[in-house]
Specification:
By secondary structure, this protein is of the alpha/beta class. The chain folds into two domains: about 90 residues, Nucleotidyltransferase, domain 5, CATH 3.30.420.40; about 40 residues, no CATH class. The protein is about 30% helix and about 30% strand. The strands form two sheets. It has a five-stranded mixed beta sheet. Strand 6 and strand 7 form a beta hairpin. Helix 1 crosses helix 2. The radius of gyration is 15 Å and the shape is globular.
Length: about 150
């Protein structure tokens, strides 16, 4: 099973996927100063309470727009799951080329939204995310991220 963690400016959302099925999910407040130990206790406790111990989780994927949280979660992930950890960011191959002037300026949250839209609904696609700020992103017919606001 795959543990996914999406750290936004206001909330952090976690999900456990069993194949393509969302088996469980949680939403907690994003706290910028949260330590590795706090993440380990909080997330580990939530997962264990629902029966998703380390042995059941085979991989972790992290998308974050909060750099201190990204590093803390990268450090904690091996305690949560028995498998590889992927942090979405520059250089990670998602299958969708980022065709804008400065690809490193596109947040991981926007990239994973574009990838999900293309895979779940096909292309072309416009993705609207009503998070802390409202974002619009566009995926071309050829499954390329071509920009957003």
């Amino acid at each position: 099973m795959l543990l996914v963690i999406d750290v936004g400016n206001t909330e952090t959302v976690l999900g456990v996927f069993d194949g393509s099925d969302l088996a469980a999910h949680w939403r907690v407040t994003t706290v910028r100063g949260r330590t590795r130990d706090e993440y380990r206790l909080l997330l580990g406790g939530m997962l264990e309470m629902e029966g998703y111990g380390r042995a059941r989780l085979t991989a972790v994927a992290i998308s974050s727009v909060v750099p201190p949280a990204t590093q803390a979660l990268r450090d904690v992930a091996p305690f949560l799951a028995d498998g590889p950890v992927t942090v979405v960011g520059p250089g990670v191959k998602t299958g969708i080329p980022i065709l804008i002037d400065n690809p490193r300026e596109v947040g991981a949250d926007r990239i994973v939204n574009a990838v999900a839209a293309a895979r779940l609904y096909g292309t072309p696609a416009v993705v609207v995310d009503f998070g802390t700020s409202t974002n619009f992103d566009v995926v071309s017919r050829d499954a390329e991220y071509i920009g957003g606001v």
